[in-house]
Structure formats: C-alpha cells, structure tokens
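Quick one: structure for this chain?
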Amino acid sequence: MTIQIALVLGLLIVAIILFASEKFSIDVVTIGLLLILIFSGILTPQDTFKNFSSDFMVLLASIFVITGAMSDTGMLDTIGERLVKISGKNQTLFIINVMIITSIISTFMNNTTTAALMVGPVMGMCRKMNISPSRVLMPMAFSSMVGGNCTIISTSTNIAVSGYITNIGMPPLGFYEIFYLGAITTVVAIVYMALTWKWIFPDYKHESFIEEYKIREYFSEIFITKNSRLIGQSIFSSDLSKQDIRILKIVRKDDREVIPDAHAVFQPEDVVLVECKLDNLIRVKEASGIELRGDVITDTKITGNKMKLAEALITPASNLVGRTLKDSGFRQRYNVVVLAIHRFNENIATKIGSTILKTGDLLLMQGTEESINSLRQNKGLTVLDDIKVNLFRRRKGILTVLIFIAAVIVGSFEWIPLSVAFLSAALFTVMVGAVKPEQVYRLIDWRLLILIAGMSAFGVAMEKSGAAQYLADKITSIFGSMGDMAVLSAFCVLVIFLTQPMSNAAAALVILPVAIKAAEQMHVNPRTFAIAIMMSASISLATPFEPASVLVYGPGKYRFMDFIKAGLPLTIILVIITVLLVPVFWPLK
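Got it. Here's what it folds into:
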C-alpha cells in the first residue's frame, strides 16, 4: 500500500466518523478533506473544483427552487385536502393513497424535499382522519425514498452518479433509464406496506403536549404578592428572567390574559405561568415576594384564551440548523416561546435557548394564532397543524406545476439539455411570482451541493491515488470466486451500510470508483455496477438515519426499533430485487 492510498483511505475513515458524529457540518468536513487532498498533491485545483461548476450542480440547484415554489404555493396542502375526501373513513385506503401520491411526487422531486413538504399536510390529514401519525409518517417517508429511484432528477444521488459516470467517459443516465426498475421496487414496497401496516407500524396515540414531551415538572404557577419586589419590573429584565426563569403567560386579577412582551410589567396579584426547574423558584421565592401554587399544569393552562400550542419541524433547508434559538433571535422575531425540543428519543426542556439545533428537531411552541401562522413563512420550518389552503397561491401553484411538467418534457426528450430546461423552469417560477427573488438562494441547500461536488472530487482522488484499484482488488479476491453476481451483491450491501453514517449521495460516490474498477477487472459492464450502487443507496430503510426518516422521527414519536422492525425486512426484499433485476435491464456482458 502506497502512502497516497493510505492517506486517501485514512481520510475516508475520518470522513465517515465525522459525518456520523455531526460534530462539524458536512460542508465543513468536505472542504477540509479537499484541501488536504490538494496540499498532498493527490488532486490539482482543477480536479477539485470542476464539479462545482458542472451542469448537474445547476440541475440540482434549480430543482430546489422549483420544489420550494411548489411548497410556497400550497400545492401539497391542496393534494392533502383531496386525499382526505377520496379516502373517506377508510384508513387502509388513506395510507395507500398517501404512499402512492408521495412516491409519484418523489419521482420528479428530490425525495428528502418531498418528505419535508409532505409531513405537514400528512399530520393535518391524520388529525382529520383520527389516525395516529405514527401509522402514516413512516410509510410516507419510505415511499418518498423508493419513489426516488424512478427518474434521474428524483434524488441528489441519481444526479450525482450520472454526473460522475459522465466525467469518466461513460454515457450519462437517460431521464427515464431507471424508470422500470424503480417502478417495480416502488410497487413492491407499497404493496408490502399496504398488506402489513397494521402489524409493522406502531400506533402511538396522541397525548397532551405536556405528557408527550414529559415536561410537567418544569412548569409552575406563581402568585405575585402585594409587597413583591417584582411589581413594576419589566418582565424580560426582571429578577425572575435573570434566574433563567421563563415567563410564559400572565393572568391579571381581573382575569385578563397578558402576553409577555418588552412593554409588560408585573402587577400585584398577577398569576404567572413560568417554565424552569423548581429549585430555581424555591431559591428566589422569599427574596422576590412570590407564592408557589400547587395546581397541576395542563395544556389548557399553558394556552388559555389567547395562546395556543403548536409543533414545528426543522427541515434541512432551515437556517436554524447549527444555530441556537438565542443566536437567531427566534422569540423576538416570531413572538413565540419554545417550551421543549424533541430529538429522537430525547426531550430537551432545559437550556433550550443555547441548544444547537439539528435537522429533524421538533419544537413545542407557545404563541398566539397570529404568531404561529407567521412561522409558516419560514421556509425551513414546517408547522404541524391543520391543513390550510391559500386559494390565490394555489393558482400560482398550478402554474408552477405546469412549468415543471414542461421542463420534464423538453428535458426528457433531450430537446435542450436537462440542466438548461430546469434552470429555465426555476427562472419562470420567479417571473410568475411563485417564489420571490430574494428567497431563491435560501431555498437551495448549499451544504448538499458542496457535499456532492466535494465527494465527486474525492472519487477522483480514489482513482488517481490507486485507492479504488486497491479496494477493488481486495473485494474481488474475496467474492470473485463466487461469481460476478456475488461481487455485485457485496457492493450493494456495502453501500447500504455506508448510507448509515454518510448521506446517500456521499456513500454512492465513495463506492462508485471502486465498483467500476472491480467491474473492469472482471471484464463485465461497469454501468451495471454503477446503477446497482445508485439504486441501493436509496433503499436503505432499516434505520432512521436517512434524511427522510429523520424528518418523520420526531413528528411520529418513533423509537429506533420501530425502524428496524418495519424497515429491515423491506430493505432485504428490495436489495434482492435490485441485485436480480439490474443485470436483466443492464446485462453484465
């Protein structure tokens, strides 16, 4: 093993660890890897940065803009409203409809974006249908992932793989080249989930928000006595606020509710709802002149006449990812209070303002109807509430869909390059007012673009250093005696494992140069291996680490084992189908 091979493989291991730990942002890790490869002489600046200006990057950015326009115009809410009417009270039919609609949308849109856009409407539909969201959100996420295997534009992985194989001299993927295989795996997945949903998907009934977030112990009511030193103090600069005691609501002695703001002050005989540890209250009780009340705090106590509770999901496009609520000025900007954060199986109820937020975090918020609705304008947050359809925006949404369909037609028939077709469509969505010009750059997931371009360059480094050839030799020496299909299966399973700590696109781009070298070494069709790896990267459903699964984990109140139980058997079925059918559509020899 040469020094260059050792360095590249060492960097790969470091990348996997850093991606899994999430200690640093994926774009920061990617750029760091590229700089090391440049300084070591393995890559030239031209090798490194040519992918950042490639046409598939333009295509991916354009799709982000178009899907953002569809979200903005309320098209998916409209679809959700129609789904409820079509399904009636039949829950099985409802779940099947959700899976079909999601997979169809995901055929032409990025699957993670599809899941992010669907989770809000689906939650609203579940409330109308009186069905547990946990029954529906996981099959919805799975459908978005398998549906993304039908066209080249449906996942960033497909676009990245097509771009990579084009760069190494292979013909690019056709728009519908993978459609038949993708459609078969999608239909199998939907049929499997439709037949088994009552047994494999959990049924977690909705409890009160206080119970679901397990935060009852952090809420208390206090009474401001007539001689309290708090009287006349501004709420946000009071002795209570200085002790990290958050003021949620005030009820005056005439039963008027007061929403805390910069102008509100404490008055005698106020009843104040606060959020903090009981120890903090006891410590300031005597000094501040307050009395503790022992009433049980419920959702109703927190809401009252003016206030309401709502949940908001942080999506990959949110500018809150990697920041804290305090840094972003969340309370001041939206006039809502975040009471707790749900992250996987953890409920965070202390030091909320200083908690670094992640994709998939679920925020429990308290605010007025008006302030909660203002959050809907934040493109990185999905308010999990009833379906609300804006008729005016719906008309622009229909126009956006027509523009998108036109781009698909002219691009798929290769009348103009695919990247030009979708860039034109993105421009038209701005021109018709479906999305504002200043919102365009916020809709694009720049971190994902950097990741894909960077990992494509990393694939070049694996080739130039000899690391791809080295790994190909090792894999073929182990599985080669069992036949070509055994080697193909090994690569498919390997990429599925790598999608756990890494993104799908990154895992595929890491394995791709190795698989192509192995195919060349065995004198079989390298395109067969490339497509098998690309397809396998999108059917890893066994854990909640895939972006679409991360987005439904919190809203569905799932546990880790729920994904193992539901996703592992389906993943095995889909891998077997993929390994068997890829050589049928793309013969090995």
